[in-house]
Amino acid sequence: MKRLGRAYRAVRVATSLSCLPLLVEEALLLHMDHEEPGINQDLPYLLLWLVSKYEHIMMRIVNYLATHDWMYRFEFARRIMDFMSRRMMSFVNGEILTLDEVREMLGSIFEGGHTVAIGTCPCRRALNMLSDDVPNNTDMVIGLWAEDYLRHYPGLYHRIDQAEAEELVKSFNRHGLMHQLYGFQSREGAAYVLCNCDSEVCIPLRAQKARGYQSFRKGRSQAIVDEAVCLGVEECGACLLRCPFDARVVDRGKGVVKQDMCFGCGLCVSTCRGKATGLERKRGAKLIYARRLVS
Ligand code: SF4
Ligand code: SF4
Q1: Measured from the CB, is residue 230 less than 6 Å from ligand 2?
Q2: 294 CA → ligand 2 middle, Å
Q3: 278: exposed, middle or buried (C-beta count within 10 Å: 0-12, 13-18, 19+)?
Q4: What is the mean pLDDT of residues 83-98?
Q5: 182 has which bridge partners?
Q6: 20 or 39: whose pLDDT is higher?
Q7: pLDDT at residue 39, rounded to an integer
Q8: pTM for the model
């Protein structure tokens, strides 16, 4: 009986050891075989897994580094921080999209049969700032990343269909949440998550405003204003409140656009009471992350 027990244990050890290479392979697997039309998610699986599981903790660290002044007082530390932050921002950043582009992009994603899930914004989780006024579940994850989030956070994320996704993005837009498609390394079609951001809690936006780090790629469009039609900021001024990038300013009583600061989100268009604001396509501007998803 003892011998049988030992043999059984030996078989168990051998079996678990034989699984090791498989586990390692799975952890390091490159998702080369998941390059499907319209979407390119070939990051190492281990990286995907780590970021999806601990994103809120990473965001907490970024927020701390961006909003605490003490380490920027020392030249050496400031340089290191700047270097690290710029490296990080060039590795991962968000491409600003208009509502129309988002809707078209979602159509392509669902057409491609990719999973889409929605859950609580990681910046809100990082800052413990749930809102009573705007939606909290605004983190729309895509494809393999959606499947990871559904595995890691089954109570927090749920799968959605195209109709629900459409309704959600329209509602986010009405609430003044800006749409940005997150990707990596400026790689074409690298679409991982559609963030719908509240400028009060968006940590990348905080980092951009506080330290000048370029967290976002500008969209294809920019806002233009017909000053003759503008109601004037005394009577209206909605655009000044709406713009997440502080690109709307007052000039001779009218709400005008500082073109170099406009990221083309389009939020000031839908809110313009005088119908004085529109969006115009910038010549030669191209989308990178959404390129294969939006015409
Ligand atoms: S000016 Fe309008 S379109 Fe440009 S960033 Fe601000 S809200 Fe978005
Ligand atoms: S929201 Fe429109 S009408 Fe109102 S101040 Fe701005 S540009 Fe003028």
Answers
A1: yes
A2: 29
A3: middle
A4: 85
A5: 94, 193
A6: 39
A7: 86
A8: 0.83
Full residue range of the structural domain in which residue 119 is found: 33-217
As a whole number of Å, the CA-based R_g of the chain is 23
Give the Å distance between the CA of 247 and the centre of ligand 1.
Answer: 6
Same domain, 240 and 272: yes
Q: From the CB of 105, is ligand 1 less than 6 Å away?
A: no
Centre of ligand 1 to C-alpha 176, Å, is 11
Residue 198 shares a structural domain with residue 228: no
Q: Does ligand 1 have an atom closer than 6 angstroms to the CB of 243?
A: yes
Q: List all residues 6 or more positions away from 173 whose beta carbon is below 8 Å from its beta carbon.
A: 99, 179, 267, 270
CB of residue 267 inside a 6 A radius of ligand 1? yes
51 Cα distance to chain centroid? 13
Separation of CA 227 and ligand 2 centre (Å): 9
Cβ atoms of 143 and 41 within 8 Å: the answer is yes
Q: Is the CB of 274 under 6 A from ligand 2?
A: yes
Same domain, 130 and 180: yes
Centre of ligand 2 from the C-alpha of residue 168, in Å:
26
74 & 210 share domain: yes
The HSE-up count of residue 119 (CA atoms within 13 Å, CB side) is: 27
For atom 2 of ligand 1, which residue has the closest CA?
268
Q: Which of 38, 61, 54, 280 is nearest to 181 (CA)?
A: 38
Would you say the CB of residue 264 lies under 6 angstroms from ligand 1? yes
Same domain, 72 and 194: yes
Asked if the model's pLDDT at residue 19 lies above 70, the reply is no
